[in-house]
Amino acid sequence: MNRTTDGAEAVRTVRDVRAVRAVRRQGARHVPLLLAASGWLALAATALPAAPPAGVLRAAAVTAFLLTCPGAATVRLARPALRRGEHWSAVVLAVATSAALTALTTETLYLAGQFTATRALLLLAALTTALALLAHRGPPAPHPADPASHDATARHDATAAPRRRPRRGRATWMAAALLTATAACGGPAVSDMQDPGSSGPAPASAPAGEPPAQPPAAARPWHSAFHDDFTGRTLDPADWTTCYDWNRGGCTNAGNKESEWYLPGQVGVADGALTLTATRRPTTGSDGKTYPWTSGMVSTGRDHWDGQPRHTFTYGYVAAAIQAPADATGMFPAFWLLPAATRGGLPEIDIAEFINSNRYVDLNLHGLTPQGRDPISHQRYGPADFAGGYHVFGVDWEPDGITWYVDGTPRFQVTDPDLIPRVPMELLINLAVGFEQAPPADTDTARLHVAWVGVWQH
């Protein structure tokens, strides 16, 4: 009687275990579908406003996806069923794989000059979906430790081969190797992948590995007279305006016959960088003319003709870390100094001009002789990949000469005392369009990125 009862209990136990395993397998079939949808949910979350509480939800969704889902889909494809004791090591491996895939995607886009946070998130979402759907093609294999896959006799057979212990160490070492490789390659933190929004266009890449802000060695000590590293979300109106001194409802440089009309909406601050965006969009200026392009600029000058400049400088080291536009033809970015008293005109110090090129930079001094002539002093430096990352362009403007620097190396010098400006000057950065050459028909936008601007004086 006891044996019969024990046998019935054993049968019921096996049936109950089988039922539980069946439910687990049914749920496991939905995991790949959830992974496939995770990236698109994170991408949709980026459309939420940046302000709390929506901003918190957006950051949480993007962070959770980047930390786990690409790696989880990869691990799921490689190991549809996990042995007992392998779940924690699988989690570690998924996080490490996610970090490696995020770094690889980011660096590939960055080196190709195509990086944006949204584009990287889109590629990772597509990759996660593809991996998850491949893992969903068939049901998971029976678990090797599943009692439902063996009968009661086989489970108690003394001659049965001993079960292997889970190999936890291998997954742990693989995770450590992936994290080490990611760190060695300089992969970005998850926070760098988030697109928190800004007051204007977002930069195409975060200023990863930007050059330090420091003046060259000199006989006399330097002190900082002005600095902005654009760590906020908006342009500081105490330091910058978005037009020339002669502005009125926007502005342009008619003397160069340029194709853009500058507007504040084309200036953005986000991810630790200032971005000036030129867009092919017809805009009617306050002068009554229609300009085929709209673009952005910043200046430390006035809000209007009769106003007071925000900052002017006489002598010192003036520098900025700049990334030139990837589409350079038809573009004319410039980092320069203009006299504050005359609201333009000569003299003029062109710290860096990129005229239809992101491989060569023009270094110019437009002087002013007593006869009113401009004995321009000019040097072109290159080739170099000025669109591939940030480069530092600066001038050491002293009473006895001006020296131009590119990435800390002097490249040009003017020492004629009659040509050296001796008047307070405003600082300007702009992205002009159509100077000497129109952009190609298939170019509709261009961006100039600035990681920091600094002025040091003795």
Basic shape: elongated
The beta-strand count equals 18
Question: Any idea of the CATH topology of the largest domain?
Answer: Jelly Rolls
How many helices? The count is: 8
Q: Total domains, how many? A: 2
Ends apart, CA distance between termini:
103 Å
Organism: Kitasatospora phosalacinea
Region (Disordered): 138-169, 187-220
Biased composition (Low complexity): 196-208
Transmembrane segments: 31-51, 57-78, 90-111
Q: In words, what does this structure look like?
A:
Strand 10 and strand 11 (348-353) form a beta hairpin. The protein has two domains: 2-156 and 167-193, no CATH class; 223-457, Jelly Rolls, CATH 2.60.120.200. It is 30% helix and 23% strand. With 458 residues, the protein is of the alpha+beta class. The protein has helices spanning 2-28, 31-45, 54-78, 87-111, 117-135, 152-155, 168-184, 190-193; strands spanning 223-228, 260-262, 267-270, 273-279, 283-284, 290-291, 293-295, 297-299, 316-323, 331-339, 348-353, 361-366, 377-381, 391-398, 401-406, 409-414, 425-433, 445-457.
Any key phrases for this structure?
8-stranded antiparallel β-sheet, 18 strands, Jelly Rolls, 6-stranded antiparallel β-sheet, 458 residues, alpha+beta, 8 helices
SSE blueprint and pairings:
Blueprint: H1 2-28, H2 31-45, H3 54-78, H4 87-111, H5 117-135, H6 152-155, H7 168-184, H8 190-193, E1 223-228, E2 260-262, E3 267-270, E4 273-279, E5 283-284, E6 290-291, E7 293-295, E8 297-299, E9 316-323, E10 331-339, E11 348-353, E12 361-366, E13 377-381, E14 391-398, E15 401-406, E16 409-414, E17 425-433, E18 445-457
Parallel strand pairs: 2-7
Antiparallel strand pairs: 1-18, 3-4, 4-18, 5-6, 8-17, 9-14, 9-18, 10-11, 10-17, 11-12, 12-13, 14-15, 15-16
